[in-house]
């Protein structure tokens, strides 16, 4: 067989096996060396290709799509720095456990380390931030090599999802010529009905004896706290709410826990913990006997202080698979089990351990009601950052996704997202907590067809404006709410703000940019409301439109800092005066 036929059959079998393994989407950044992969993916009838010019944006687009669908998404790029531009998104995928397949094209071995153009060392380029790396063999089409191509494709797709999901990297050396021949007979190989390699994975559950012992241990305590941190399993909300009601425990529910919204019972959910746990006296009064956490560490720094203050408290962290997510360093007992099954198994062993007079839960609820009362009355018609977020969570459509940026955006959602029967999926890039790639991530999530609203600050928006091109190119429906305080608003809450000499240049970093001109360039609709009512109308209009809509709310960083401080101070004062006395 000649080179072209070897190349074509080898890559066609690889791509077809990815399809049989469940891959439905590939994000391709144009380049010459990746031609065999790019053209073959585009040719496959069962795989949707998304063309994103900038590799950095492409990787985040794939990340957002994979987060939304919970399925692996493939990334295809050329050699050299094209592959290096994937790195930030690969790091985020690793940290936040998102399945990605990075398929990088490369020079063949004889053109490496000899000064050939667009050639860098791509072997294990992403280091330990991928679950595995494999250097693919040069293309051949003898039966054993086609089997090899299929096996490697199936392994990569499975590995990205098995255990803690994450990115997998395959590097493809290609010799020229690079253009496949799609006129070949039996292009996609033998018509297999099933994937070439199949894995079966069951739910991880602990033994009956362990569950009996653990239930007995919890029954000996009076004051427990259930914590639901960032996690993606939607079924946990129902399971953990039943557990909390049966045990008479409060649920500290992070906004990314998928627990604050939905049809499940929300009686024991505490949304306002970030506001009242800021006070040391309150933290001491709410010292628990044990903490039972599901998911990652919550966003709230106040909760971090709460855990730090109680190093002697029994802490149990339920993880689906391996992993160590306990940044405080407190003594911790890790329970490796499926979270939903764990809740039901625990309930089976101890159907109820509620104290007759549950003052513990009542105290948490009383403080939470104080927070909710203050949040409900903060509106005075002005459009503060908090009011903008509160309005958003009120107006956002049911059965949609809210993708939240880092810094102030996620913290305001933590403060203002109250429990609701509205079903929302909360997404964020909280693995590495960076502001990069947020627009591309949100647009990627919107590519799933699910209604998506992206909430972020002006620096995050500026950092990734080229992500808007994909929304324009594919006419994707997405509403972006940009809270523009002309710089890094979160730094106003940090000690750096006290250094007036260097603060603005190094931390405030005002942009002084008119975003409307960029929105026009990308063919989007633009709104600039100045009151809460205008914001409601703008959001409602944006949800009726097709394509890209950007709503920009302009605020003042200093005013925002004082507004938040006044809100927290009022809450703290009332709790100390009425609840703690």
TrEMBL record:
Keyword Transferase applies: yes
Co-factor requirement: Mg(2+); Mn(2+); thiamine diphosphate
Residue ranges of every copy of the Thiamine pyrophosphate enzyme TPP-binding domain listed in the record: 439-553
A GO term, aspect molecular function: 2-succinyl-5-enolpyruvyl-6-hydroxy-3-cyclohexene-1-carboxylic-acid synthase activity
GO biological process, one term: menaquinone biosynthetic process
SUPFAM superfamilies the UniProt entry points to: DHS-like NAD/FAD-binding domain, Thiamin diphosphate-binding fold (THDP-binding)
EC number per UniProt: 2.2.1.9
Residue span(s) of domain Thiamine pyrophosphate enzyme N-terminal TPP-binding: 14-124
Pathway membership, UniProt: Quinol/quinone metabolism; 1,4-dihydroxy-2-naphthoate biosynthesis; 1,4-dihydroxy-2-naphthoate from chorismate: step 2/7; Quinol/quinone metabolism; menaquinone biosynthesis
Superkingdom to which the source organism belongs: Bacteria
Family matches, as Gene3D superfamilies: 3.40.50.970, TPP-binding domain
InterPro entries cross-referenced by the UniProt entry: DHS-like_NAD/FAD-binding_dom, MenaQ_synth_MenD, MenD_middle, THDP-binding, Thiamin_PyroP_enz_TPP-bd_dom, TPP_enzyme_TPP-bd
Cofactor remark: Binds 1 thiamine pyrophosphate per subunit.
Record's keyword terms, sorted: Magnesium, Manganese, Menaquinone biosynthesis, Metal-binding, Thiamine pyrophosphate, Transferase
Catalysed transformations (reactions): isochorismate + 2-oxoglutarate + H(+) = 5-enolpyruvoyl-6-hydroxy-2-succinyl-cyclohex-3-ene-1-carboxylate + CO2
Domain Menaquinone biosynthesis protein MenD middle span(s) in chain numbering: 201-404
One Pfam match: TPP_enzyme_N
Cross-referenced CDD domains: TPP_PYR_MenD (cd07037), TPP_SHCHC_synthase (cd02009)
Enzyme class, broadest EC rank: transferase
Family in the record: Belongs to the TPP enzyme family. MenD subfamily.
Assembly and binders: Homodimer.
PANTHER family: 2-SUCCINYL-5-ENOLPYRUVYL-6-HYDROXY-3-CYCLOHEXENE-1-CARBOXYLATE SYNTHASE, PROTEIN PHYLLO, CHLOROPLASTIC
General function of this protein: Catalyzes the thiamine diphosphate-dependent decarboxylation of 2-oxoglutarate and the subsequent addition of the resulting succinic semialdehyde-thiamine pyrophosphate anion to isochorismate to yield 2-succinyl-5-enolpyruvyl-6-hydroxy-3-cyclohexene-1-carboxylate (SEPHCHC).
Protein name in the entry: 2-succinyl-5-enolpyruvyl-6-hydroxy-3-cyclohexene-1-carboxylate synthase
Origin species: Ornithinibacillus hominis
Upper taxonomic lineage: Bacteria, Bacillati, Bacillota, Bacilli, Bacillales
